[in-house]
């Protein structure tokens, strides 16, 4: 796995001596492997008889040519045609080394200095900086920068360090290096790379422990700070005979290994210290179990040992146990969170030992205190938490490297196990990946021994691999975080990088290596992803061949199953039966077992296994797409369709909708074709070439031919009825292509205008490569390259103008990189110019698409439920970002001249128009699909109001300027304002911005304009008319409001339903007398409270009803008149009776409140309207005899339902009436005086019981609806339930204290009142018929 396949044996090479055992053959094969870099030991055997140092045995020409020839012999990505023609399993060339690196390598070759295997290098994932050492120099550059703008920093390793180290200047591979991002603006979890303007570098020699610190590599001075190990420290590092053995150990050291008896640094990490400029802290672990800390600053480096022994290996004996003192451990250091926030005062890091993983915390303060948080065993007897040891056949376990994901949640460990085959007694090695995660609910700083748990079972990369020595094993490094998701990369010391991908219960390996003399792989990293929370493609740094990327598709399609390299398959974990093989091919048949390695890049190897297990649906799609391309090409040549529809239906071309439809894929391939001849030029020359426009026009013509083919073959009708979404995407391809052509013309026009405005000293290249649009094109191209690494060898501008279907990325980058393209620190004029340039580009794209759609509207499918591409959230966000910048600039334009202000206004107006059109389309599509759209609608309204109100505010400022500058009458000024506001008013009308429409009409004082807009802007809820009515009502312009009701009667009726104080007037105007009567009746009985229809604060006093009792009576009189005007019928009489009853209740309230005048406020008497229940309770509280009778009058004029509900209150009224007379005294007079029947009648007539009975039950009793007898009968014998003691007036009287004595008189009073009440008159109180 980790070594390339053996090539033809070289008979001229001198073989190594056999060291015995099964490793001899492996060592021999390894020696003859052309992809395995030769170590310093091996080179002595090969080159001792060769006059040319480092000359490979393969016959490569002499290496002192001015430039290394390896890139010429490594086949490049196919650049001859479409990107789809590129072999998907090949790596992709990303970037060449800077010329400074090439020159230094050539210089070393001229000097015949051996550089093979001596250099080191790496890629910093956070800053996207690559570095490589050549001799005594370190070269650092951003590998994502274009070649024209690449800046390479050269750092000189001080000669003092080299002299003290006694290692020689050629020993450049003995350095550990960390790049520290000191730029706060480029930090964070966002994976999109930012330009790093400040970075520090810390280098540590893993042999001599010398430390070099550059505080800022981008400063003018690269003066480093040096720290060398003290003699006391070296005493603990070297053997007792260190003086004599050190040089010998250096010469005998192997690649990636440590010296015998020399305790070296195995790993180095570093971090910036927040709040301290140019101050960093570095941590290194030593193979003697020590943990060292280096406090690096411009003034010096303070080094101290923070832990003495961190290994603490278990005290086991035997072969199966780990050594108590292991020269390779502790092995690896890594930060828990790779992305550090400047606000955090401490950082956690992991340390990997031979049997456990430990977690520490370092305080990023002045003392830099390091404390241990927890440790957990990963190699022990419990397989649930890690690796179970002491198994049968297991001899030794090596944890090699540890890595953490970007979120600090998943810990990945590379593990190698030495095993013994029990049958053949041969030794083999098993490579595995152990994945751990934090247990849920446990804090990261807890001291729990079991803080980690397995995320998934152990993933075996190679079940049986050949035996390797420890030097080779500990040269391996692990990388995580690339595509495919969950994949890992293992870098070995022999110069290869292997991607391991575990998918569908199968592990597949993809091996990246290089031709023999191309050098080895130095490091691997991950390309910054175009989207957050998404992995990027793997990228590798080579020793001589530049930087390469491994596409995701290459890993998926080119991965192979783990190879079997032992002599016997027995006991192997990948030994399966034939049935299992068939089942695996059925489940995971999308991936063919292929080997993707650069071994066959230039050999013409076509012996790879074909795609034998691809799913049927995918094969059918490919067959349909091939048939469609064939038919379309026949149409282009002959103009005939030849039963194309029938053939395509048979092939299943109409079974898929959306992006996967074969017609959509063909359309996309047409518009995304990469030009064959653009790669001859780069940068601004691409934009200057007419071939760009020519290529776009050719694509447009071919796409139009494709649409003609769809129409003639009747495929258009089929798509329109069955796959509307697919047809829309095809036509949107035409929209984007037209927009791209117009954008190209805009770029030309911007360049021409800029070239005309600058002097002749400015070069055309500088003119082409300046401006906001150019910068944004570069960003879009970079994003496309990060999404598709097959485009990494193309120029950014070429990628942008080729990938037409990804035009949405233009708006994505506009939103994500707006602060980079338009920097707030730039002068206002520059910001103004760049913002207008981007605004013009956005407007050009959207308007071109709208024009294309209008011109070809007959081609489009029914739009119901389909969202246009320019209505998608990513497009809206991009346009809004540009509009936000213009809004900010609009508030700062006081220093601009009049023409610049008008220019800025026009750009913002045009941008607002296309943005609001996008929102309108998105809302419409959601409504048609029945999806939730409230949030989108609120966002639409909020941004609409912000844009149009800001625009109108600027118009008002123009108005003030015009009033000062325009000479003439007021009318001329008004005409000028109307001319400026006409387009703004049309936008406001189209998108329902009622506030701006109302303000414009008020400012110009044109009632005719207002009425016209109200007619044009009618909606389901009244539209603009409702808003106008509301504003007039708020300003108390009631007469204007009612006059508009003459022209908008229905709309005003809807509005006035919440304003009954005016609704009856509008009803009278409409001759709706019945409705007016009801409104007046309700208004007369309404309480004096604030209207509930208005919820805003600060409302005016007119919203409160403040009616007097006299006003209410007048309203009732008007209601009665309106009822009679509506016509006399049965319903009218009922309404009139109710009105009269309410009038009587109001008069009764006046009388009742008059009796309480002495204790009640006069204003309260006049304005407060009492509920009948409250009014009755007031009567019960009154002391006069008339209050008792008024209570019965209130009951009489309410309703039958009221009397039923408040029957208990009615009973209280009878109790009060009975207590108004002294019945015991009347009874004594009745007995003593001997009253006759006539005298008894006359004496009882004066009692309240008699009068109440007469008013409620007498022949002349007047009540509204049913009488009192339906609620409370007079006599007990008339009740249906005689057992109820409180269900009649008689039962109530029986509870009176005088009833035992005068009960006969009391019953006589209510009975006589019921019978004789009609012939009597009352001396007190109003008549019931009054």
Would you kindly provide a written description of the structure presented here, covering whatever features stand out?
It contains 46 helices and 31 strands. By secondary structure, it is an alpha+beta fold. Strands 20, 21, 22, 23 and 24 form a 5-stranded antiparallel beta sheet that branches. The protein has a 4-stranded antiparallel beta sheet with strand order 1-31-30-29. The protein has a 4-stranded antiparallel beta sheet with strand order 2-3-4-5, with helices on one face. Strand 11 (280-286) and strand 12 (291-297) form a beta hairpin. Helix 28 (994-1004) runs antiparallel to helix 29 and helix 34 packs antiparallel against helix 35. Residues 1-10 have a biased composition (Basic residues). Residues 85-548 form the Nucleoporin Nup133/Nup155-like N-terminal domain. Keywords: mRNA transport, Nucleus, Protein transport, Translocation, Transport. Belongs to the nucleoporin Nup133 family.
């Amino acid at each position: 796995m980790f070594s390339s396949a053996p090539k033809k044996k070289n008979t001229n090479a001198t073989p190594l001596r056999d060291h015995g055992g099964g490793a001899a053959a492996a060592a021999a094969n390894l020696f003859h492997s052309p992809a395995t870099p030769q170590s310093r030991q091996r080179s002595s055997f090969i080159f001792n008889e060769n006059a040319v140092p480092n000359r490979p045995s393969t016959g490569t020409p002499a290496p002192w040519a001015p430039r290394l020839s390896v890139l010429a012999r490594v086949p490049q990505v196919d650049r001859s045609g479409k990107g789809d023609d590129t072999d998907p399993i090949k790596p992709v060339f990303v970037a060449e080394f800077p010329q400074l690196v090439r020159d230094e390598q050539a210089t070393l070759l001229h000097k015949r200095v051996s550089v093979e295997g001596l250099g080191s290098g790496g890629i910093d994932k956070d800053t996207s900086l690559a570095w490589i050492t050549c001799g005594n120099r370190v070269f650092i550059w951003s590998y994502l920068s274009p070649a024209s703008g690449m800046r390479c920093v050269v750092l000189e390793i001080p000669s003092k360090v080299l002299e003290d180290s006694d290692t020689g200047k050629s020993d450049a591979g003995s350095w550990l290096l960390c790049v520290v991002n000191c730029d706060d603006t480029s930090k964070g979890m966002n994976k999109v790379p930012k330009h790093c303007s400040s970075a520090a570098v810390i280098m540590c020699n893993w042999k001599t422990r010398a430390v070099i610190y550059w505080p800022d590599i981008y400063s003018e001075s690269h003066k480093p700070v040096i720290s060398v190990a003290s003699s006391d420290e070296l005493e603990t590092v070297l053997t007792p005979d260190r003086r004599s053995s050190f040089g010998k150990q250096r010469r005998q050291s192997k690649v990636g290994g440590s010296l015998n008896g020399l305790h070296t640094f195995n790993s180095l990490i570093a971090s910036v210290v927040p709040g301290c400029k140019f101050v960093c802290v570095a941590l290194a672990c030593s193979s003697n179990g020590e943990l060292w800390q280096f406090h690096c600053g411009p003034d010096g480096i303070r080094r101290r040992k923070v832990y003495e022994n961190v290994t603490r290996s278990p005290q086991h004996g035997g072969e199966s146990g780990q050594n108590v003192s292991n020269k390779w451990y502790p092995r690896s250091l890594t930060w828990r969170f790779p992305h550090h926030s400047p606000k955090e005062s401490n950082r956690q890091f992991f340390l990997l030992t031979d049997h456990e993983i430990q977690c520490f915390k370092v305080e990023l303060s002045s003392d830099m205190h390091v404390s241990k948080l927890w440790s957990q065993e990963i190699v022990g007897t419990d397989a649930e938490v890690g690796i179970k040891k002491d198994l049968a056949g297991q001899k030794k376990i090596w944890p090699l490297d540890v890595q953490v994901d970007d979120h600090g949640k998943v810990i990945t460990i590379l593990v190698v196990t030495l095993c013994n085959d029990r049958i053949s007694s041969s030794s083999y090695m098993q490579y595995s990946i152990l994945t751990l995660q934090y247990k849920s609910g446990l804090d990261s700083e807890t001291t729990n021994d079991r803080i980690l748990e397995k995320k998934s079972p152990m993933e075996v990369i190679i079940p049986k691999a050949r035996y390797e020595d420890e030097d080779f094993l500990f040269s391996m490094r692990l990388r995580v975080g690339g595509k495919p998701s969950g994949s890992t990369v293992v870098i070995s010391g022999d110069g290869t990088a292997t991607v391991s991908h575990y998918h569908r219960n199968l592990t597949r390996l993809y091996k990246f290596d290089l031709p023999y003399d191309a050098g080895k792989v130095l490091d691997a990293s991950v390309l910054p992803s175009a989207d957050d929370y998404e992995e990027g493609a793997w990228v590798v740094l080579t020793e001589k061949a530049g930087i390469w990327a491994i596409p995701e598709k290459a890993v998926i399609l080119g991965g192979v199953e783990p190879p079997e390299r032992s002599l016997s398959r027995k006991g192997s974990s990948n030994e399966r039966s034939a049935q299992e093989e068939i089942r695996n091919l059925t489940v995971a048949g999308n991936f063919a077992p292929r080997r993707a390695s650069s071994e066959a890049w230039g050999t013409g190897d076509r012996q790879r296994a074909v795609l034998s297990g691809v799913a049927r649906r995918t094969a059918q799609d490919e067959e349909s797409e091939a048939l469609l391309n064939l038919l379309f090409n026949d149409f282009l040549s002959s103009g005939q369709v030849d039963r194309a529809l029938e053939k395509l239906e048979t092939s299943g071309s109409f079974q898929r909708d959306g992006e996967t439809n074969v017609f959509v894929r063909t359309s996309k391939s047409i518009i995304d074709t990469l030009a064959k001849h653009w790669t001859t030029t780069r940068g601004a020359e691409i934009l200057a070439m007419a071939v760009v426009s020519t290529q776009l026009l050719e694509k447009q013509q071919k796409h139009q031919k494709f649409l003609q083919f769809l129409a003639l073959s009747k495929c258009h009708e089929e798509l329109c009825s069955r796959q509307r979404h697919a047809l829309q995407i095809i036509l949107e391809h035409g929209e984007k292509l037209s927009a791209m052509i117009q954008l190209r013309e805009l770029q030309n026009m911007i360049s021409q205008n800029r070239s005309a405005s600058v002097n002749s000293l400015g070069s055309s290249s500088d003119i082409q490569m300046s401006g906001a649009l150019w910068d944004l094109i570069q960003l879009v191209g970079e994003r496309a390259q990060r999404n598709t690494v097959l485009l990494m060898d193309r120029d950014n501008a070429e990628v942008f103008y080729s990938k037409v279907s990804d035009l949405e990325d233009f708006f994505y980058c506009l939103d994500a990189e707006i602060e980079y393209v338009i920097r707030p620190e730039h002068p206002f004029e520059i910001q103004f110019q760049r913002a207008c340039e981007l605004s013009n580009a956005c407007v050009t794209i959207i308007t071109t698409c709208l024009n294309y759609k209008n011109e070809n509207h007959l081609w489009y499918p029914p739009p119901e439920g389909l969202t246009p591409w320019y209505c998608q959230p990513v497009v809206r966000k991009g346009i809004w970002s540009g509009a936000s910048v213009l809004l900010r600039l609009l508030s700062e334009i006081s220093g601009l001249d009049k023409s610049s202000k008008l220019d800025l206004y026009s750009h913002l107006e045009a941008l607002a128009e296309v943005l609001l059109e996008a929102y309108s389309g998105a809302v419409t599509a959601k409504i048609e699909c029945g999806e939730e759209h409230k949030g989108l609608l609120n966002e639409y309204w909020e941004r609409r109001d912000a844009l149009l109100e800001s625009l109108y505010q600027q118009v008002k400022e123009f108005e003030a300027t015009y009033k000062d500058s325009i000479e003439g009458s007021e009318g001329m000024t008004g005409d000028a304002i109307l001319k400026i506001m006409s387009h703004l008013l049309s936008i406001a009308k189209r998108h329902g911005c009622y506030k701006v429409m109302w303000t414009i009409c008020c400012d110009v004082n044109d009632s005719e304009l207002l009425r016209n807009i109200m007619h044009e802007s009618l909606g389901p809820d009244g539209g603009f008319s409702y808003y106008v009515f509301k504003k007039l009502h708020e300003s108390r312009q009631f007469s204007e409001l009612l006059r508009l009701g003459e022209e908008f009667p229905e709309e005003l009726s809807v509005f006035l339903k919440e304003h009954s104080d005016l609704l009856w007037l509008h009803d009278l105007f409409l001759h709706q007398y019945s409705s007016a009567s009801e409104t007046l009746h309700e208004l007369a009985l309404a309480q004096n409270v604030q209207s509930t229809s208005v919820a805003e604060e600060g409302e005016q006093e007119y919203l409160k009803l403040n009616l007097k009792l006299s006003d209410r009576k007048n309203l009732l009189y008007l209601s009665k008149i309106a009822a009679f005007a509506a016509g006399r019928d049965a319903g009218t009489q009922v309404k009139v009776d109710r009105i009269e009853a309410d009038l009587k209740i109001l008069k009764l309230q006046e009388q009742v409140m008059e009796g309480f005048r002495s204790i009640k406020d006069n204003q309260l008497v006049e304005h407060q309207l009492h509920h009948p229940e409250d009014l009755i309770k007031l009567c019960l509280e009154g002391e006069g005899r008339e209050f008792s009778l008024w209570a019965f009058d209130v009951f009489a004029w309410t309703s039958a339902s009221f009397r039923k509900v408040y029957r208990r209150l009615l009973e209280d009224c009878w109790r009060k009436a009975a207590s108004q007379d002294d019945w015991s005294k009347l009874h004594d007079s009745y007995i003593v005086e001997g009253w006759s029947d006539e005298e008894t009648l006359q004496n009882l007539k004066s009692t309240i019981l008699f009068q109440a009975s007469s008013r409620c039950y007498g022949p002349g009793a007047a009540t509204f609806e049913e009488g009192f007898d339906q609620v409370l009968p007079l006599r007990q014998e008339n009740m249906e339930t005689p057992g109820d003691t409180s269900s009649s007036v008689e039962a109530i009287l029986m509870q009176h204290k005088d009833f035992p004595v005068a009960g006969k008189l009391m019953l006589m009073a209510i009975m006589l009142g019921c019978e004789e009440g009609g012939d009597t008159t009352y001396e007190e109180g109003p008549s019931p018929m009054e």
